[in-house]
Amino acid sequence: MLGFVLRRSAAGLLLVLVISFLSYTLLSIPDLDVGRQLLGQSASQDLVDAKNAALGLDRPVLVQYLDWLAHAVRGDLGTSWFTSEDVVRAIANRLPVTISLMAGVTLVTTVAAFLLGVWAGVRRGAVDRFVQVFSVLGYALPNFLVTLVIVLVFAVRLRWFPAIGYVGIGESFTGWLSTVLLPVLSLSVGSVAGVAQQVRSSVIEVLRQDYVRTLRARGLPPSRIVLKHVLRNASAPALAVLGMQFVGLLGGAVLVEQIFGLPGIGSMTVTYTTRGDIPIIMALVMLTVVGVIAVNLVVDVLIGWLNPKARLG
């Protein structure tokens, strides 16, 4: 297992380097003239050139990237070009919001999708049809439409939850829960739909295996067969889908944070990308890539634990 984890970690590190280089190169292609944006249209060209030189923008892109990488590996991600705010501190202030959403959606998706998928795969009939219809609708409906309906019903009509704003968990647990519940629900609908369908299909396939018939013939209780034998073998494909859903959630978080007015990483990405603030954008890209690699590594380890043959891949 240790060799399996080391191979995955090495592949992840290589991926970080490749994506960091491609991201920096692509961000440098548009000629945004940062010095002009900072000093204004009335500034002379000499002052603009001097500002760009002070930021290191007069050097070749490869030199700029290597300089950024050398500082990044030492934990120095620089400061924002536009606000002079330390990049690490700026992201750290917003990270708890996005982590709250991601953790909540992952928890809701894991519990709800496995319950629905196992229920449909074991019971079949009307329950199976209900789960399939829910999966199709949940996956097909646009996320922004689901979010708007949830806001109109639970925040505007019923007034059970605030429509916008965020309360830190350190300030008030109930306040934090009330501000993240609707965003989590909005992001969870499509995620639960996709994973539940995969769990259902896997459970049905495992239930048709010969060893399950043998266990039934030996008189083992159905609940023990499902929980101890079927669920373990059906979990690996579902975990792979759950890992891919997490990657998609990062994109959905941008929209949801904008609608609910949450000061998270998603809304921060939109704001700083439109300005062309490369230090902030590169830090956000690396944070996203490392998060995706970490989640996929955890999923790979779990799949390797459930199915030792997967470690050979």
Oligomer, anyone? Answer: single chain
Helicity level: over 70%
Beta fraction = under 5%
Q: What order do the SSEs take from the amino end to the carboxyl end, as H and E?
A: HHHHHHHHHHHH
Shape: globular
The main pleated sheet reads as: none
- Radius of gyration equals 24 Å
Distance between the termini: 12 Å
Average pLDDT score: 85
Structural class: mainly alpha
Low-confidence stretches: none
Number of strands: 0
Structure annotation, total helices: 12
Structural write-up:
78% of the residues lie in helices and 0% in strands. By secondary structure, the chain is mainly α. The longest helix is centred in the C-terminal third of the chain and has 39 residues, at 222-260. The radius of gyration is 24 Å and the shape is globular. The relative contact order is 0.14. The model has no long low-confidence stretch (mean pLDDT 85).
What is shown here, in short?
This protein is an all-alpha fold and 313 residues long.
Key descriptive features of the protein:
mainly alpha, single chain, 12 helices, 313 residues
Task: List the SSEs and their pairings.
Layout: H1 2-28, H2 34-39, H3 45-54, H4 61-72, H5 87-123, H6 125-140, H7 143-157, H8 173-207, H9 210-217, H10 222-260, H11 265-275, H12 278-306
Helix pairs in contact: 1-4, 1-12, 5-6, 5-8, 5-10, 6-8, 7-8, 7-10, 8-10, 10-11, 10-12, 11-12
